[in-house]
Structure formats: C-alpha cells, structure tokens
Amino acid sequence: xxxxxxxxxxxxxxxxxxxxxxxxxxxxxxxxxxxxxxxxxxxxxxxxxxxxxxxxxxxxxxxxxxxxxxxxxxxxxxxxxxxxxxxxxxxxxxxxxxxxxxxxxxxxxxxxxxxxxxxxxxxxxxxxxxxxxxxxxxxxxxxxxxxxxxxxxxxxxxxxxxxxxxxxxxxxxxxxxxxxxxxxxxxxxxxxxxxxxxxxxxx
Length: 203
Prior knowledge:
Layout: H1 12-21, H2 24-32, H3 42-50, E1 53-59, E2 65-71, E3 78-81, E4 84-90, H4 97-104, E5 107-114, E6 119-130, H5 134-140, E7 149-163, H6 174-200
Domain Pyridoxamine 5'-phosphate oxidase N-terminal: 41-162
Keywords: Coiled coil
Organism: Hyalangium minutum
C-alpha cells in the first residue's frame, strides 16, 4: 500500500509530536482516506484565479531554507494539467537564490494566501526553471502586465491542502476598496439628487 500523500509533510518526527500533543488520531483518520489532495482540481484552479501573491520555499543542497515572494495580477499562477502548476518568473533583483537552490534541490513548498477571503493553501512538489518560450508565455503570461519575463517555473504537484484560517488577518485590495467607495459615493449622489427633487416637488 502506498503511503498517504500527507506524508510529504507528516514525517515520523512530525507524527511523534502529533502523538505527544493529542492530534495524531484526527490526522490518522485523514490518512486512511488518502491524505492530502494530489491533483490540480477545479477548486484549486478557482482559488489560484483569485490570488495575486504567494511565497515559494526552497532549500539549498545543505538544507538552508529560503522563502521568496512571488506576485503578479490575479491568476498569475495557473494549472497547466492535472499535476502541474506554472508561473512566469519576471526579472527582479537578480540574486537567483531560488533558482540556484532549485538547480541542486528541486523540492519546494508553495504557500498561497487569499487575504480578502481568509483562505490559504499549501502546495508541496518539485520544481524546475525552464526558458520562457512563446508557447509557455501564451499559456502563462498575464495580459498587459508590464514586466520582463526571465524564465518560467513549473511545479509538479505532490500534494496540496487547505490550511486553517486561524490568525489570518483579513486584508482588502486597495483597488477593490476604491471601487467599493466609488459605488457608495455614486449611490449617495443619486439619493441626494432624489432628495432634492422630492423637496422641490412639495406643494
């Protein structure tokens, strides 16, 4: 029998701590059902379409961890097939820490957050960088996003899971707030105009 997909996160040491602190039984029940999701489902695609930020965790061959922010327009991370996610890696500060780490250790964890809806998703897998070909850019490049592509990151998904929303602050996008305020101001203007009209119609 294959081990549950959640073993990508639940090592023997993790399971030992879970046992000591009382959560192992609950996670054992989840493991009997197979563990975490392993395919890029429609629900994951829908979540990706809503987010504009994420954090990619890599490590060197010696195990030194590193986390790098990745961002773009909503939906910049996309599902390419049932086991692959991809995004365009734009030119940045040219330190190439993540790229260097991937050249010697391809294991990654992608931490994705939708602050407005207070949801977060963890994705485990392996990743590689490939040239930003016209074919891949046609699939992954955000429309009208003014940044220069340098390469493409492809992630082969091993497992993913929806994380607990506890302690996740709700933050709203500035553009969405501005649009909501504009709608409110427009409605107030309509009501004020109607109020003036009704006052003027009094005998």
